[in-house]
Amino acid sequence: MDVLAVLLLAVFSGGYLALAGADIGVGMLLPWLGRDQRERRLVIASFAPFFLGNEVWLVASAGLVAGAFPGLEHELLEELYPLFVVLLVGWVVRDMGLWLRGRVDAVAWRGGCDVAVVAGSWALAVAWGSVLGSLLFGGELGVGSVVGVPLGVLFVWHGAGFARWRLPVGLAGRAARIPSRYGLSALVMALLPVVAGVEVSWSRVAAEGAGLTMTAVTTAAVLPLLVASQALVWWTFRGRVESPSYL
Amino acid sequence: MGVDPLVLARVQFALTAATHFLFVALTLGLATLVALTQTRSVVSGSAVHARMTRFWGQLYVVNYAVGIVTGLVMEFQIGLNWSGMSRVTGSVFGAPLALETIVAFFVESTFLGLWIFGWDRLNRWVHLVLIWVVTLTAYLSAYFVLVANGWLQRPVGFEMVDGAARLTDVGALLSNPTAVLAFFHVLFGGLLTAGFFMAGVSGFHFLRRTVEVEFFRRSMRIGLVTVVVSVIPVVAFGGMQFEYVQPTKRGGGDGAAAAVADFSARFGPDVYMPPRGAQVGLGLMVSMWFLMVVLALVALVKLPFGRWLVRGRVFHVVMILAVPLPYVAMVSGWVFREVGRQPWMVYGVVKTRDALSPGVGSAAMTVSFVVFTVLFAVLFGVNVWLLARFARRGPEGAQLGASPPAEPVSPAMSPTF
């Protein structure tokens, strides 16, 4: 059961970094991809239909850790407390910037939301880099936390690949200045948590008893359904974005 | 300057959970009413119901955003601040939370994205199915969260091995009466919240002599019918829970004395009776319910006559003033449930004091407390303001499902008030 749960965690955390990594990266590049507020709304529209369905991979990963690896949950969160506070604040600020931007027609409001999106995206990416680095170096605050910070740049690289494929031709040209291939960067992002998780002794942190079985078996059973619902989103919003969206 | 980390962690969780629940309560009920309205609109092709779906759906989406972000922080806060609980009971308590995120929230959020952004792209029947999936998974989500909370109230289906709990009976966990009854209590509480919200917003527009008479008459009717239908079940499912309430929560009696004696024998002397605040919460919740019953009776008189809903300025003012009632009831109900469980985190298993993360210092806890409290206060303020703004604008102001105008918007597009 441990093995199944580890595989599922690899799928969900890899899914998060590959999918949400792209919209975080586009958020980081927002000031460069969109030079005025109209363009920036278009840039946000490139990932708007996906971002809700992207961040749930992280929520599900956290749920999986709580249900299957409670030992990892408290060790990791407690050891890396400051990093996770930065990560959460970045996440909340970014999400609110996205949700609120389109709600009020005022230059200052949209400008403020743009700042929230960009700052939140950078905070998220840097915090993730640091968390992954810390995991690789024994799971505590230390050398790894600093060494990991540059990993945040991977989000930029991944986001540029996404923007190149989703933005209208003119704006996509700006993203193309960063040499990137979406397929390749998605693969790298998906493998990051696998590499970072190699050092963890999984059987030690796993849940005991029926809780683990219930979590792992149910998750494995619904996974095809979850993937299908996400595929429906991607199929519905395929192609280049031409007009602003609700956000 | 030593602030007690226990106090900080408790107040932080209480503020996060209360903020989260204020928005979740409306989300649950309003999703249901929006889904019903959209069903009517799709089946009959009625234009006014299509507009109602967009207007109330807009308010639902604005409200939903705060529910999400506070929920995210809550999920992580359990691991950040309360790792002591996870050390002892993580193998049991984590499972329903895992299922909540994977089986319920994952689907809810993915389909909500499709519903919001796919408004004009999808077949109208497919679009209708989406909102129903969103609604049902929202309820599933509430159920799993209450399974986790119900287990804290009344731990069942587990054994202690080497000082750690492990789950032995999945069925007992999932059918725990403190979870199932609480779920239906919350379900009707959410409907009551949404019912009063719809009636209050409609009352506001009648008070302002709106020209959208049919739109708000129908909305007022849906709101009042929801109130009438929910006001009795909510108290029934609340009352049924008393059979399973911890003896100490009721504030006295023989059962409480026996429980205190038992705890003292097993865990040593301590204060095993909850603070008075729990009883205050119960009293406040019940008083709010009485006020809501009175309003439901008024609604019962008004409902048979469509014109009576449109008339009566006092009636409209009262309905506006009634919007906070279910909210006060909700929060005080949670105070009763959670404060009444003290000094236990998991009743009779882990004390709240021992559930705290041992390694997190007072400084880190203080910083996190200040940052999140300020952040949520801003979010709360901004979103309440936005809800009020969109509610006041009426159906013409709904941006949901409308193709967004090219920026900058011409002044004619934004009505002034």
Automatic annotation (TrEMBL), chain A:
Keywords, comma-separated and alphabetical: Cell membrane, Membrane, Transmembrane, Transmembrane helix
Which topology term describes how it sits in the membrane? Multi-pass membrane protein
Q: Where are the transmembrane segments?
A: 6-30, 42-69, 81-100, 112-137, 143-163, 184-202, 214-237
Listed GO CC annotations: cytochrome complex; plasma membrane
Cell compartments where the protein resides: Cell membrane
Q: Which GO terms describe its molecular function?
A: electron transfer activity; oxidoreductase activity, acting on diphenols and related substances as donors, oxygen as acceptor
Instruction: Output the superkingdom of the source species.
Output: Bacteria
Instruction: Tell me any Pfam family this protein matches.
Output: Cyt_bd_oxida_II
A Gene Ontology biological process noted in the UniProt record is: aerobic electron transport chain
Q: Which family does it belong to?
A: Belongs to the cytochrome ubiquinol oxidase subunit 2 family.
Name by which UniProt lists this protein: Cytochrome d ubiquinol oxidase subunit II
